[in-house]
What we know:
By secondary structure, this protein is an alpha/beta fold.
Amino acid sequence: MKKWSKEDCRQCLRWRSGECNKGDFGYVALIGGSVRFGGAAKLANLAANAMRSGAGVVKLAVPREIVDAVSPHLLESTLFPLSSEGGEILFVDTELNELVGNVNTVAIGMGCGTGDGVKKTLRYLLRNFAGTLIVDADGINCLAQMGTDALTDSAPKVILTPHAKEFARLLGTSVENVLADRVYLARDFATRYKVVVLLKGAATVVTNGDDVLIVERGCAGMATAGSGDVLSGILAGICGYNNDKPLEAAATAAYVNGLAGELAEKLVNPISMIASDTVGQLTQAISEIIEK
């Protein structure tokens, strides 16, 4: 078991030469949103977080019904409309193939609901996508409904980012049982399904089954809606150029997210703080990490 440090993060947030270009730092796709959980600005922030974290190109894929709401909030990222019905995405393999054909990292689940289209999309990615697949929020809830055997022999490198309640659903147990032995349960799950588990908490547990990394960054002000979405965006961005190191990328994302939250709490307060305050401190957090 190892406590993840600022020095460890620098290996993932590597410095860039004047000869580099956007293609050197990964193409990332984020699949999320629904009419019920549109959060246009929040979805745009997901994409911005991925770019602030270093991704070269970010594509935000959302149901067609919310494209007009999201597009005014996007600047540097590309918007990719997905076929949808009833406010949630539909599974259309040709669209998915176009979306992920040139990306090395996909994150799915942020506010997308748990309908059949989402489940089919997740199953397709687990069977056919060759990069890193980050499964968060509703993606984890879909996986719990589908059955964790869907993870067996997955094509991509999979990173799951549950909080305790979501992890309890995956395991079919209680939150109390998860909290009683977080490290053992996360490590056992990661070993069984050959995935990386990032189990959120006051001390975040990140494990691939062999190694366990503990990230002790964050604050009480981060206990607010949207904080998990912020982490997903950061993680997708860092994975974009660390596609071969999902464990280290996950720990670094948790550290960056937690440090940005701490900086935000100092400027606001733990009661009034919201997730976008963390977003506002992301660049400062990364600066503090990379500057020796």
